[in-house]
Amino acid sequence: MSDWADLMNDLNKLQHSDAVTTAWQFTEQVPHGRDLGMQVVSVDQGQVCMRLTPQSWMFAHKDTKEICTSVLYSLADSAGGLAVFAGALELMPIATLDLRMDYLRPAIGDRALSAVATCRHLSDDVAFIHCDILSEGNRELLATANATFMRNTQGQQLHAGGPGKESA
């Protein structure tokens, strides 16, 4: 079975769990994630996999179909933020403090992108995240990211039921 089929099986197993419900709602609450069409594939303790299918308007160069680097930043930031929640096992306001990416090769838009973000360490105030962005199919590593997120920031409280709704 392919890696992608394994990931889809994981999603099917988790589709009714609280973690995946929360993850789906997270992607709906973050406008750029929703607008880019990011999808949550799997959520595990401290690790998240997200998928993005490139669209032609995301290409920096239509001739080469190279995806704009800002799309990869958005994917890494979203997956990283969700990995904070998966690692902490609770929802709280967070803010990206730092996000650094190393690009290993261009992301060509003929294949979907996968981002696998892992929470490496949590302190009371900061989460440390590593994220790999891969080209789907051949699982070619396109970029790596390291990020820090401030935890318990002042801001709107996130609830599993969506904005303004209390979680059960």
From TrEMBL:
It comes from the Bacteria. GO terms for molecular function: acyl-CoA hydrolase activity. CDD domains: PaaI_thioesterase (cd03443). This is Uncharacterized protein (TIGR00369 family). Residues 71-140 form the Thioesterase domain. Keywords: Hydrolase. It comes from Marinobacter nauticus (Marinobacter hydrocarbonoclasticus). InterPro entries: HotDog_dom_sf, PAAI_dom, Thioestr_dom. SUPFAM superfamilies: Thioesterase/thiol ester dehydrase-isomerase. The keyword Hydrolase applies. It holds the Pfam family 4HBT. NCBIfam families: unchar_dom_1. The keyword Hydrolase applies.
